[in-house]
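Exercise 7. Given the encoded structure of a 187-residue chain, write a plausible sequence.
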């Protein structure tokens, strides 16, 4: 009797999963710790991200960068993120493929009811591990913003916040921009 073929040999599961996610015909999706999740921000999430974008866009242009929500690959892990905002050098944004967190200048995540813990814990840890220099967490559930910087293998070593919505948060160099968080509250 012939046995079923063993397809597990020679298959790179991480590569196969990431290939599948990139070729889905549905809305955008990300992979968080091996779980495929749809990326479907609410209007409140979009509004909060837009308010941050507007405050950094002039400086982003001066730096020769672009801001958007392109794909970020975390090689060697089962993670493929779609941040609310990532600021990357313009020349890196031209290739059409995913970038690595350490190729960003800033990553912004806006929490929602369905992904708050992922943004607060998992993504914060992974962005530090993959050396994203600045991670701004806009926590709509807590009504606060926190800036994480100086990434290391065990996490970010510098934390500025949490600051309540309404505070002004200074983004460090290369941005040197104040973020007014007054309009971030959904109420």
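Solution.
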């Amino acid at each position: 009797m012939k046995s079923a073929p063993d397809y597990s040999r020679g298959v790179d599961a991480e590569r196969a999963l990431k290939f599948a996610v990139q070729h889905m015909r549905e809305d955008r999706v990300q992979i968080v710790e091996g779980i495929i999740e749809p990326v479907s921000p609410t209007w409140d999430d979009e509004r909060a991200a837009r308010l941050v974008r507007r405050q950094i866009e002039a400086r982003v242009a001066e730096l020769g960068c672009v801001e958007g929500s392109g794909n970020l690959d975390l090689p060697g892990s089962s993670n493929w993120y779609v941040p609310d905002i990532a600021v990357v050098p313009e020349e890196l944004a031209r290739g059409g493929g995913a970038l690595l967190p350490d190729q960003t200048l800033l990553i912004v995540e806006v929490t929602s009811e369905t992904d708050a813990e992922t943004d607060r814990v998992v993504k914060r840890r992974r962005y530090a591990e993959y050396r994203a220099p600045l991670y701004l967490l806009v926590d709509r559930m807590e009504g606060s913003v926190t800036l994480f910087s100086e990434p290391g293998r065990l996490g970010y070593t510098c934390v500025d916040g949490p600051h309540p919505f309404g505070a002004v948060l200074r983004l460090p160099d290369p941005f040197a921009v104040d973020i007014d968080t007054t309009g971030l509250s959904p109420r």
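Remark. The first helix runs from residue 13 to 22. Students should compare their own answers with the one above.
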